[in-house]
Amino acid sequence: MIIKILGSAAGGGFPQWNCNCRNCADVRRGVTGLEPRTQSSLAVSIDGRNWTLLNASPDLRQQIAATPELNPASLDPPRSSPIKSVVLTNADVDHVAGLLNLRENQPLFLYADRRVLSALAQNVIFNVLDEEYVARVPIQRDRMFEPAGCPGLGIEAFAVPGKVALYLEDEKAGSDFGTAEGDTIGLKLIDLRTGRFACYVPGCAAVDDALIRRMTGAAVILFDGTLYSDDEMILLGLSQKTGRRMGHISMSGPDGSVAALARLQADRRIFTHINNSNPVLRKSSPEREWVESAGWEVACDGMEVIV
Ligand code: MLT
Ligand code: MN
Ligand code: ZN
What is the C-alpha separation between 243 and 234, in angstroms, rounded? Predict the structure, then answer.
């Protein structure tokens, strides 16, 4: 199985258009040790010819252009694409806005939880994905399916502690803002020839025993790396929100992801969906050193992971 990290940044990307935090300012002026990153998306394939996208970021057009495997090959028909299907893990803007790039009447299968499909159905602009060409298929959690057009790939979705998309938050619904199971899912990506698997969890509010059980034995986990510390956006003067409020566990701290996943058995662990405020984006930072010494890698755009 080949996994390509198309975009490793969280919503807003790195640098973010209206952000002048130290990370964003430094990457803008080309300081060494910081690399720009596009927004959260992966592509996965077993045979290297047929691909499934995992999330469709607002930067998808640029990501496809930067990835030769995702473009029509020289002898392909006048209209064709190696991208055969798309699987969404939630309805966040950074994961669905790129669907608009996939118009042009190209046959595709779009898989998502019913809750996410219903959010798309309520946004008429997504009608550019004509139902005559683009099938919208609800995912049944905890049951493996084989995404259309990608032979040898099995995917199993599972519920993850999280939060409903920001633009769907219901303030009156209480502290969970109307979040329901299925608003955030993780994906187990299985190579059906070998049985080896990876887990992709770009948004996760907390690590519980069910999640550990689910990911045990993975060849690689690609995990929510939004923030290093829960209050980093507040301390940098960027936002009033903690990571908890945004539905994202932080890397550090006693209940952070590094500590919570220390007992997980997995060959490789990689942070992705990294917010521009996160100090691990700076290669020489003590925070980067700390996550790496704990066995974690920090994803960058274009990274290829072989499972
Ligand atoms: C998130 O991951 O929390 C969202 O992408 C935030 C957003 O939509 O801006
Ligand atoms: Mn996001
Ligand atoms: Zn910034």
Answer: 10
